[in-house]
């Protein structure tokens, strides 16, 4: 079957992508030299043809933005566009002489212009950033909700026009985000379904290879892309545009870093577009991202930038200080006292730590533990070192309980201590090797101060766990009483225990339909209420929230970035995060189409210091963006002939005629089937003729419960569905079956 597929592919050459883009000329396309005989891509650089020399660069062109001196005025980040004339440069890797394939040919007639879509309202800052990103490797820094995906879609669309034989790749950190971006990009620029594909690691390598051959817009996670580059499944020499979403993750040895490095070894030239709401908390982190992704321009805006003002809706920021109850304070004080006893034992064992439990953070204990392992104090015997490290581990566990009691309430702290006791019990019964740690934990559990702590925390839980619970319920009750029925709210908290507690408490509030929104992982000993949500379940929750089945999402960090949750009128931050990145991502969930409001819940005398630190960190991050001139940008070579493009064109890029202009049309070419048979059918769909309603209905097949899945099919054997409308509901009912297409021309179903 594989040989049949390869032979068919030879008889059915890939269609010219220019036929899908109106106005694209073909006469002046530079011919691409045929590859010399030899091993396929991935066989090693020494077997690849030498790259043709690039034309000499005429120097970087300044586009968009204002000089850096005007970047910060009265504490505002102005229109910031940073290029080599503003910042120091480091040279690009000198690839001349390296064994690389020839560059992808340019259609010079099409490259004489660039197109900006008018499907959405035209915003000056998006138009300016798009123009820059077409000519330079660009890091785009826009807060959540300001339209980074539209910029990416416009860049990918233009590179498809300019390089008809090239491929555009969109990388995202998670599969739900990949799935979402397929629809968002297609909707923005009206890409035909058959040109787009969503790849996953679950697909067989041969299926992915076939998709890479025929699709022109590929959406996948960075890890899948890295694997395909390493194995030669991906034709890296054909990639002309690489979009990196959530680019602040491109540090250390992240998959984004590996992807850029591997692609640079296989491609003669490609454009990088990096998207991030928060590229780094300081200049050092930003420099790492810039260097790893070979960035030559930084385009940063915020809500107060000169070309953004007037484009976005207002966002009201409120700080609500919650008065703690006596029961809550008593439970927290008991937890601090148990922590104080452990700190005292640490000092007695020769470990220098502070004596104020409210100021000794868990991170400082972890740092001390690493220092002790690397360089123990002179004269301390080894068994004393082991005991001190075990003491530090127990102290960190109690420190975490104190933090939970302070920010999330007595219930979260009790749940934490119960899980730790259950883990200790299982280790003891299983004869765990960490005998010293088990012994120290047993001493803690039998101590009077520990029992006193659990007793006080239980009293606090009975009295309401945390005063922020009632404050959240009051805020929601007032909000839904003053807003239309379609209003939606998100409540952010860092802890899954807190999500469970909040969801249960809000179920008692009239007019509130709350649901939890958490990640995939399931914690140790988790029951049904604490289990993670699969990626399919996450998409279903988001769909139900957008349709109004729920009007409140109680979310952990999974709701802070990436996924398009929809329009949200109110954001409630149940806990205070000192991370400027998380704070910015939370705030960006509201104020998109309508005016929004953000409420920070702060416990008096407990979280006020953390709140002030979060404001300071946000200012530091904004200053880091404003001081981006200190970042060393990477000098890159042009991909287009000198002087191109010469003009810009704004036009409406509607969906193809056979697809309705609705979100439902934004489905990837790789359909959602079951098992490996579905993947084979998806691959066949990619080489089919242009979409028709009849063919689309035939592809929406599903296996009946209990049916045996069809065997894997070659390209000339399709799995199709016989669809017919059901009289009662008007929906299409379908059943999968196998039809032998070996004697039927390809595409005739």
Write the layout of secondary structure elements.
Elements (H helix, E strand, L loop, with lengths): L1 H10 L60 E2 L2 E2 L2 E3 L6 E2 L22 E5 L6 H12 L2 E4 L6 H15 L4 E6 L2 H15 L6 E3 L6 H10 L2 E5 H10 L7 E6 L10 H12 L4 E6 L6 H11 L3 E4 L14 E8 L3 H23 L13 H13 L7 H26 L2 H20 L5 H11 L2 H15 L4 H16 L6 E4 L3 H11 L7 E4 L17 H13 L4 E4 L14 E4 L6 H8 L8 E8 L4 H19 L6 E2 L12 E5 L23 H12 L6 H7 L17 E5 L2 E2 L6 E2 L2 E5 L9
Helix pairs in contact: 2-3, 3-4, 5-20, 6-7, 9-11, 9-14, 10-11, 11-12, 11-13, 12-13, 12-14, 18-19
Description:
- The chain has 749 residues and is α/β, with parallel strands linked by helices.
- Helices cover 39% and strands 13% of the residues.
- An 8-stranded mixed sheet has the order 3-12-6-11-10-7-9-8. Strands 13-18-17-14-16-15 form a 6-stranded parallel sheet, sandwiched between helices.
- 45% of the residues are buried.
Q: Termini, distance in Å?
A: 20 Å
User: Which segments are poorly predicted (pLDDT under 50) over 5 or more consecutive residues?
Assistant: 1-17, 22-79, 92-97, 661-749
- Count the helices. How many? 21
Biggest β-sheet strands, sense, barrel: 8 strands, mixed
Specify Rg, calculated over alpha carbons.
29 Å
What is the helical fraction, as a range of percent? 25-40%
Chain-averaged pLDDT: 75
**Largest beta sheet: what is the strand line-up?**
3-12-6-11-10-7-9-8
- Secondary-structure-derived class: alpha/beta
Which geometry do the CA atoms define?
globular
Number of strands: 24
Beta fraction? 5-15%
């Amino acid at each position: 079957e594989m040989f049949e597929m390869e032979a068919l592919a030879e008889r059915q050459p890939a269609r010219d992508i220019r036929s899908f883009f109106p106005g694209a000329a073909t006469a002046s396309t530079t011919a691409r030299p045929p590859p010399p005989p030899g091993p396929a891509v991935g066989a090693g650089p020494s077997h690849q043809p030498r790259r043709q020399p690039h034309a000499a660069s005429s120097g970087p062109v300044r586009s968009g933005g204002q000089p850096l001196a005007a970047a910060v005025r009265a504490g505002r980040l102005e229109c910031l566009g940073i290029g080599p004339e503003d910042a120091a440069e480091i040279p690009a890797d000198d690839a001349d002489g390296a064994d690389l394939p020839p560059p992808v040919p340019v259609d010079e007639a099409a490259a004489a212009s660039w197109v900006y879509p008018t499907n959405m309202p035209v915003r000056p800052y998006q138009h300016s950033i798009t123009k820059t990103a077409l000519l330079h490797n660009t890091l785009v820094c826009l807060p959540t909700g300001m339209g980074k995906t539209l910029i990416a879609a416009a860049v990918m669309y233009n590179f498809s026009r300019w390089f008809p034989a090239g491929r555009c790749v969109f990388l995202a950190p998670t599969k739900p985000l990949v799935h979402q971006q397929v629809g968002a990009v297609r909707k923005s620029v009206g890409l035909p379904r058959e040109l787009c594909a969503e790849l996953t690691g679950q697909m067989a390598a041969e299926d992915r290879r076939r998709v890479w051959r025929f699709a022109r817009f590929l959406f996948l996670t960075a890890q899948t892309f890295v694997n395909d580059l390493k194995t030669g499944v991906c034709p890296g020499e054909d990639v002309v545009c690489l979009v990196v979403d959530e680019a602040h993750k491109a540090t250390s040895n992240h998959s984004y870093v590996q992807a850029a490095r591997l692609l640079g070894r296989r491609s003669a030239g490609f454009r990088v577009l990096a998207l991030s709401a928060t590229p780094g908390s300081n200049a050092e982190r930003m420099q790492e991202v810039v260097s790893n992704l070979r960035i030559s321009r930084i385009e940063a805006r915020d809500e107060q930038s000169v070309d953004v003002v007037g484009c976005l809706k207002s966002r009201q920021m409120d700080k609500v200080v919650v008065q703690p109850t006596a029961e809550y304070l008593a439970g927290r004080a008991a937890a601090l006292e148990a922590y104080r006893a452990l700190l005292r034992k640490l000092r007695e064992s020769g470990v220098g730590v502070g004596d104020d439990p409210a100021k000794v953070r868990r991170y400082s204990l972890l740092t001390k533990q690493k220092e002790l392992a690397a360089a123990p104090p002179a004269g301390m015997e080894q068994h004393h070192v082991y005991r001190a490290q075990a003491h530090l581990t127990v102290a960190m566990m109690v420190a975490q309980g104190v933090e939970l009691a302070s920010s999330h309430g007595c219930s979260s702290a009790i749940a934490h201590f119960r899980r730790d006791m259950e883990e200790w019990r299982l280790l003891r019964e299983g004869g765990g090797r960490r005998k010293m740690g088990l012994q120290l934990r047993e001493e803690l559990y039998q101590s009077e101060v520990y029992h006193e702590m659990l007793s006080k925390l239980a009293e606090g839980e009975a009295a309401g766990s945390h005063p922020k619970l009632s404050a959240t319920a009051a805020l929601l009750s007032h909000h839904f009483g003053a807003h239309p029925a379609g209003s939606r709210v998100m409540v952010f908290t860092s802890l899954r225990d807190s999500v469970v507690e909040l969801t249960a408490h809000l179920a008692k509030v009239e007019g509130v339909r709350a649901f939890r929104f958490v990640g995939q992982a399931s914690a140790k000993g988790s029951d049904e209420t604490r289990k993670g949500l699969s990626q399919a379940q996450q998409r279903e929750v988001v769909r139900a929230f957008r349709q109004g089945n729920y009007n409140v999402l109680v979310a952990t960090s999974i709701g802070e970035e990436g996924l398009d949750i929809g329009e949200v009128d109110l954001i409630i931050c149940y806990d205070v995060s000192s991370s400027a990145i998380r704070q910015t991502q939370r705030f960006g969930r509201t104020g998109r189409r309508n005016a929004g409001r953000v409420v920070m819940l702060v416990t008096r005398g407990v979280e006020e210091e953390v709140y002030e630190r979060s404001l300071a960190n946000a200012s530091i991050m904004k200053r880091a963006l404003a001081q981006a001139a200190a970042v060393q940008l990477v000098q890159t070579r042009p991909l287009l002939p000198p002087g191109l493009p010469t003009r810009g064109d704004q036009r409406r890029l509607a969906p193809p005629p056979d697809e309705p202009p609705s979100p439902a049309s934004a489905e990837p070419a790789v359909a959602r089937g079951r098992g490996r048979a579905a993947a084979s059918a998806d691959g066949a769909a990619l080489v089919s003729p242009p979409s028709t309603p009849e063919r689309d209905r035939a592809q929406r097949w599903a296996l009946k419960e209990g049916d045996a899945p069809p065997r894997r099919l070659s390209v000339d054997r399709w799995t199709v569905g016989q669809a017919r409308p059901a009289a009662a509901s008007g929906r299409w009912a379908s059943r999968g079956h196998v039809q032998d297409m070996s004697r039927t021309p390809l595409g005739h179903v």
